[in-house]
Amino acid sequence: MSNINLALIILAGGIGRRINKKITKQMMRFNDLTILEINIINFRKDFKDIPIQIVTNDKDFLEVSKICNRFNLLSPVIGGNERYKSTYNALQSIKHIDPKYVLIHDAARPIISSEVIKKLVKYSKQDIFCVAPVLKISDSIRKISKNIIRRIVPRDDKVLVQTPQLCNYKILKKTIENNNEKFEDETALFLHNSMPVITIEGDPLALKITYEKDLNLLEPHLTKNYNNYITKIGNGFDIHRFDNSKKSDNNFILLGGIKIKASMPLIGHSDADVLLHAITDSILGVMNKGDIGSIFPPTNEKWKNADSSIFLTHASKLLQNEKGIINNIDAVIVCQKPKILDYSKQMKKNIAKILNINEQKISIKGKTSESIGFVGRQEGIAAMVSTAIQVKNTDL
């Protein structure tokens, strides 16, 4: 959606004294994003190139400036000690743009409905003073004093007013200049000056964060993906052959970090654990970090006979640095012997410990090759792994 006659103002200058936090509510983080950034991302879903003016405070100015640079927004402005002053500062800062209309939004309402936006923008093609989203009241209303109900208030003609509010830029700016009173929002200012305000249906999820309980209500919605994370699949494959020159009843192989008795050891520069190697490569593949061979080259004597858990731990740390989350690991070990089912539970427990994940996320299956080929002749063991991981969407 593109509209050159429209600009967006996000009011994020409040201190939020009613929430017991050391940081302002617009700077609180969910999924490693501030509430202000969540606002910006949600608006960007509908507006790819709209001018966005952020109003902030002295305390947050430096961090908000970095956010504005990162999202290619207008430079932030400092707000006033009243809402209308903050709004006016923003209106002044975009006078070089001179839009016909402005959308004015409270950053404390991080959930923005595309349907509400579409309804508001339709009015930008008309000549209006102000349009605001509202919600009908379903609960009974009473007037109280000193915790005692004093009077019944009819709810039939009452509504709750939300943001964003679509306002005529020039009229709003001039009206604020001609008034010096405190108004809760733009609708109150227009109504005080006998200018009609049109209403559209709002969104119940567009709750304003005012108290601690509001954060608790919104947290499940703020911690959802909101396109911040996507799922990627990484594939890993490894194969090692047996050393038939060292047949002995005292040999063993390593699979998933578990020692298993075998008549012949597997040949490898490290410990030849095909399962851990395949899982490691699948994780590295998701992050586009190469493979085991490029990070731990077999030409380096340092890795000779190395425990393969070192490789998997390294991949896990890289994943943690990028805040990736493993959804599941699906592994298939192809061999004639040993019988994988006898050891899969131990393997899953060990791998889960290395990756610090629930072992229920790991599936390990054993397959034979029906005595066909390299594996069927018991010349070696192969492992194939697919790993699904949630990672940050870098396209935002």
User: How many independent structural domains?
Assistant: 2
Question: Could you name the CATH class of the largest domain?
Answer: Alpha Beta
Q: Give the number of DSSP strands.
A: 18
Radius of gyration: 30 Å
Order of helices and strands: EEEHEHEHEHEEEEEHHEHEEEHHHEHEHE
- Tell me the strand percentage band: 25-35%
Helix content: 25-40%
Output the CATH homologous superfamily of the largest domain. Answer: Spore Coat Polysaccharide Biosynthesis Protein SpsA, Chain A
Envelope shape: elongated
Please report the distance between the alpha carbons of the first and last residues: 16 Å
Instruction: Say what the CATH topology of the largest domain is.
Output: Spore Coat Polysaccharide Biosynthesis Protein SpsA, Chain A
Classify the secondary structure makeup into a structural class.
Answer: alpha/beta
Number of helices: 12
CATH A-level architecture of the largest domain: Alpha-Beta Complex
Q: How confident overall, as mean pLDDT?
A: 89
Please give the largest β-sheet.
8 strands, mixed
Give a written overview of the molecule:
It is built from twelve helices and 18 strands. By secondary structure, the chain is an alpha/beta fold. The protein folds into two domains: 6-222, Spore Coat Polysaccharide Biosynthesis Protein SpsA, Chain A (Alpha-Beta Complex), CATH 3.90.550; 229-392, 2-Layer Sandwich (60s Ribosomal Protein L30, Chain: A), CATH 3.30.1330. Strands 1, 4, 5, 6, 7, 10, 11 and 12 form an eight-stranded mixed sheet that branches. It has a four-stranded mixed sheet with strand order 13-18-16-17. α3 crosses α5 and α8 packs parallel to α10. The longest helix has 13 residues, at 274-286. The radius of gyration is 30 Å and the shape is elongated. It starts with 5 loop residues before the first strand and ends with a strand.
